Structures are given as structure tokens and as C-alpha cells.
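Sample entry follows:

_____
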Amino acid sequence: MGHRKYSAPRRGSLAYSPRRRAGSPIPRVNFWPERRDRKGLTGFIAYKLGMVTVFIVDDVPGSPTQGTEVAAGCTILATPPLHIIGVVLLKREDGYLLEIGRHIVSDLPPEVRERVRGVSPTSLSVDDLKASLSSAAQVRALAASYPREAGLSQKKAIILSIPVAGSAEEAFNYVVERLGKRLPVEEVFREGEFIDVVGVTKGHGFQGVVRRFGVKILPRKQRKTRRAVGAIGGRSPKYITRFVPRAGQVGFHYRTEYNKRVIKIWPDGKAPLPKGGFIRAPPPRCPAIALLGSVMGTPKRPVVLRTPAKPPRYSLGAPKLSAMVYASEVLVS
């Protein structure tokens, strides 16, 4: 092992640092891209159900299998309509977005009333908010999603502030017209387009360096432990650097996956389901959406569907779906 004195391959990836637990299973969106293709919300709340296999015609330009039928994994998400309960105005000051004021509708269901307690100090009427539009840099809609509509047992609603595309006046009028109403997923996204998925990954608890970073297991005759790093550092510096693999949390992290393609939308709530249902997920009682590829997290975990931050240079229409299979059971043919 003399060569290890001079160089050694890096143990593990430093792409994600620090590896700490997420604060909540409800994802936090740090960046909302602008939407220029059409007006409306730039995000939506969904709940993961399970995965199926789809047979579609590959229409990606330049793909080696372009024009042929291919099989790919697909994730089914329950997307109950969002309840627009309020509108928020934000201004930009010193590079930060600060709230000017907000308005929340008065007749709220019990699921939302338990989450919105009291009156915000910035609560204003719709007319007062409209008078402050000149100083607003962004308009957001307060949207509530009800997990019980997706078949989950959770009673309390999930509330998220979602930016609205367009100018401040156009976005404000868009939200005010829909205050107290339900917004379906087909009004936000369309079949064939690309979206980003923000969520929390599956948690695996506290793990060692072999599981966490892929460190090589030491030889059998090692005096102490084998599933550990051989050395955590030299005499200097007199601290452990951040490049040394250490045991800690694995999974349950905030992550964002870019450019997931929308394969199919079932606005009537009649998504094809296997006879026994998905594993660890109830059958959806609401509209559903199918995304190409996998989605982070466990079944029933909420995720946020967002307008793509780095969309591809090409645009595609709705794909040609020929079949959908789950555990050798044909759902769509």
C-alpha cells in the first residue's frame, strides 16, 4: 500500500453538503423560475403513489431510438385540485423578497383553519392590495392541498405559496378571480411538457462511512474495526477536514430533479390502477398525473411540481402511449 502515501481516490461524492435531515417531509422550494409560455401558477402539489411500465414512441430529437417504441418506468402521482385561499404581494429590497401584504378568504374549511391561526399582521383587503401593485415585484397565490382527497389519512391541509406568471397586474387579477375556487392540474401543466420535481428523499437513518460514502472495507487482519476509514487526518491541520468521510444521516434530504416529462394526465380521476392497488399507497380519489422516470421519496409523500428551471431547447407534444403495465398486469392497451 505504499502508493497510498502519495495519492488516493476520493471516497464518496461531495456534491451534496451538508448531509443533514430535512426539516419537514413537505418540500421547500428555494427557487421559482419565471414562466413566459403562458399565465397561471408555476407549481402544483402532488402525492406519490407508485411506478408502472409504459410503452411509448420515442420522439426525442437525436435519440438513438427515435421513432421506435420503447419501454420506460413511469411514476403515478395523485394531484387533487388546489384550493386558492389567498393572495400575497412581495417587493424586492436589497436583493430579498419582502412581503407587502396578503389577503386570505374568510370562509375556510376546518382542514385549513387549523393551519392558518389568527390574522397575519400584513393582512389587507383586496382593494388595499391592488393599490400597492406598483411596488410589487412578485404575486403569489396561497394554495391549499387536501391529502384526504388523494386517499391519505392526513386531515390537515398542506399550504404553499406559489408564484404566478405574468406582470404584477395580470398575476393579481388571475389570483383574485380564482379566490376560494379549485384549480385543477390541467390548468397548470400539459401533457408532453417538462417539469421539475422538488421533494424529500427516502430516509435511511444514521449510517456508517461504508454505506454513506462507499469507503472500502479494511482487510480481515485489521486490529480495530474494518468498516471505518483508515485515518481521519494527519498532525496538521489539528481538526478533521470536511473531505474526510464520517458517519451520519443518510437520506431524508431535500432534492430537486429536473426535466421530468408529463406522459399522461387523467383529469376525471380515472387513472388506471392495478387490481390490488399500489404497494403502500391508496387508490387515488382525484385527478392523477404520470411522469416519465422515478420520483424521490416514499409512497404517499408530497412533492412539488414546478416549472422547469433549465428546460431543454426542444419542445414536445403529448407522447404516443400504447400500453401501461404493472407487475405483468396490463392497465392500458
Q: What stands out?
A: The helical segments are 110-113, 126-131, 168-177, 209-213.
